[in-house]
Amino acid sequence: MQDSQNRSSNDFFWPSYVDLMTSLFVVMLVLFVYSFKLFKDRENDLKKANGELKAKAEELEQITKIRRSLQRLEGKYFRYDPNLERHELLVPVQFKAGQDEIQDAYKPALLQAGRTLRSVLKTIKTEQPVRYLVIVEGMAARYAGNDARNQSQEQLTYQLSYRRALNLLNFWKQNGLNFSQDSNIELIIGGSGFYGTGRYRGAKEGNNKRFLIQVIPKVGRIGG
């Protein structure tokens, strides 16, 4: 009787033990597969991150080289402001108060400045595709002191300074400098009115009736 009970216990124990071990094996296998997947995902993420960092480093290096090449702009017609990271047109253009017409006396120098800008941008050699965002900004000078017109004409000066920049663009086009024909140059015009960074102050306020030109290189795939 006792032997029969022992055999029954053994017959029950071993299948249960095998089932338990099988279940444990399945659980461990699932955990291993899941852990392996997490590891591979993490490895792929690291590879992707390293690739992006490498691409950014190459892009930064390319932009640095381009900025060094843009130093060729500096001279008679342009001056680079390292604090504001932009080029200032050195042609001492002065507009009549409230007017947007470019006077004939300034046109020869403005034409040469435009030719210089286009020539430099077209001759810079790059390892990757590059597009130049060229911003031509017109500006306006405030009236002296606390003149009420500084407030009443504030909105109008945005339009005025924009028209000044537009007239420069049209003048260039009329003389064969059509930047829109250059696939690597995107030209944008704007007007900052009485505002904007890097303005002249005090007795030099009148010098703000001028143009600012910013050249921003964009490295990478062009188009799309």
From TrEMBL:
<protein>
    <recommendedName>
        <fullName>OmpA-like domain-containing protein</fullName>
    </recommendedName>
</protein>
<keyword id="KW-0472">Membrane</keyword>
<feature type="coiled-coil region">
    <location>
        <begin position="39"/>
        <end position="76"/>
    </location>
</feature>
<dbReference type="InterPro" id="IPR036737">
    <property type="entry name" value="OmpA-like_sf"/>
</dbReference>
<keyword id="KW-0812">Transmembrane</keyword>
<keyword id="KW-0175">Coiled coil</keyword>
<keyword id="KW-1133">Transmembrane helix</keyword>
<feature type="transmembrane region" description="Helical">
    <location>
        <begin position="20"/>
        <end position="39"/>
    </location>
</feature>
